[in-house]
Write a structure and sequence with these properties.
Number of helices: 1
Distance between the termini: 9 Å
Radius of gyration: 14 Å
Number of strands: 9
Oligomer: single chain
Length: 112
């Protein structure tokens, strides 16, 4: 889930780690809205949370979170669940720049 200011959204993105970002047009975090079908954001990893395990009716699941800061100094929190944990946990590194492309998201209601 993304968190920006008082609003939060849940997202399932594709992450691009290429250092050549000149061909990708990105928007600021505060310009994201649930009505956009295609978008891309860029941010520098500032905080990586530890990997956690939780249980629900589907069984044991893993989750971890990380924060990105964009060029406007806005911060957004992302959480990766289930399949994304396996592919992203080793990939995400503090201080690195990431581009996140196109993903459905919805407003998150509750506390983080």
């Amino acid at each position: 889930m993304y968190q920006y200011s008082s609003s939060s959204v849940e997202i399932f993105p594709t992450i691009v780690t290429s250092t050549n970002t000149s061909t990708t047009t990105t928007i600021s975090f505060n310009a994201l809205n649930p009505y956009q079908k295609y978008w891309s954001i860029q941010g520098r990893e500032s905080t990586k949370k530890t990997l956690k395990t939780y249980n629900n009716v589907c069984g044991s699941r893993k989750v971890f979170g990380f924060d990105l800061v964009d060029h406007d100094k806005d911060e957004i929190h992302l959480s990766a669940f289930v399949e994304l944990v396996e592919s992203l946990y080793g990939l995400i590194q503090v201080g690195k720049l990431y581009i996140i492309l196109n993903g459905p998201f919805k407003e998150y209601v509750g506390s983080l």
